[in-house]
Amino acid sequence: MKNLILGVGLFFVLTSCSNDDFKYESSTVKSLDFQLNGEPWNLNVGISTRPLFVYKDNGDYFANYSLLYRFSLDNGKYKFVASDYPDQMIPSPTNLNDLVVPQPALANQHVNLSDAMQYASPFEEPLTLNIITRTGILRLKSLDITADKSYSTIKTTVSIKRSGYKVSDGTFVKEDMFVTRSKATASGGINYTDDFILFQTGEEANNVRVKIECLDQNMQVVKTKELQAAFPIEANKVTNADFFLNEL
């Protein structure tokens, strides 16, 4: 009987310890405001996109949330990141400190990301996440009025100095790379235009350069033109590069 009483007492002690070990306190996150380039932004009702990414204080990925519902987090410190293109910007879970969004290879997608914002329980203070466009547009346009029928394809190569954006500290990866695109022309270069979406350049040393090759039907180079100027790219703006393609 004595052994039975001791056993029951030990069971209650272990149960009490077990419950304490697995007891967590949580708080509801309910005071988030979202902006897109400084303007109020809301996710349309019915869209399944989850723009909010939550990381632990050490950078470990925690979860991905919609903005349409309130949610709770275990009490502690976190870092929040938001994007209106979440699938393209942050396609898979990774540590925030290692997360680098690359320059889109086809230069056809804006990179829109908020800063990594710290937020701690009890999550009572309002937090604003401003989703900022980190890219701009380089718009190429020929001013030719005389066609050159010796070529049928325009191959454009843009050399850039920034290959990625590091989300944890809002810096760019400085690395030389090329973005190349080919576009058919039936007009011998007249009315040629093309947009390249590129990371903002910041300093003059990061300005981009453009090389154009005109190819015939056999994809052989007929002529080459390198634009003399280096072009700055401003975030969420258009840089126009006008030129005569058929005048060497």
Write the layout of secondary structure elements.
Blueprint: H1 2-21, E1 26-29, E2 32-36, E3 39-40, E4 52-56, E5 61-65, E6 71-74, E7 77-82, H2 86-89, E8 100-102, E9 112-113, E10 117-120, E11 127-133, E12 135-142, E13 153-166, E14 171-184, E15 193-199, E16 209-215, E17 221-226, E18 238-243
Give a brief rundown of this model:
The protein has 248 residues and is mainly β.
Write out key terms for the chains shown.
single chain; 248 residues; mainly beta; disordered N terminus; 18 strands
Helix/strand/pairing class, anyone? Answer: mainly beta
State the distance separating the first and last CA atoms: 105 Å
Give the averaged pLDDT, no decimals. Answer: 88
- Flag low-confidence runs: 1-23
Fraction of residues in helices?
A: under 10%
Q: Report the sheet-strand fraction.
A: 35-45%
Biggest β-sheet strands, sense, barrel:
5 strands, antiparallel
Helix-strand topology string: HEEEEEEEHEEEEEEEEEEE
The rounded Rg comes to 27 Å
Number of DSSP strand runs: 18
The shape, in one word, is elongated
Q: Treating each run of at least 4 consecutive H or I residues as one helix, how many helices? A: 2
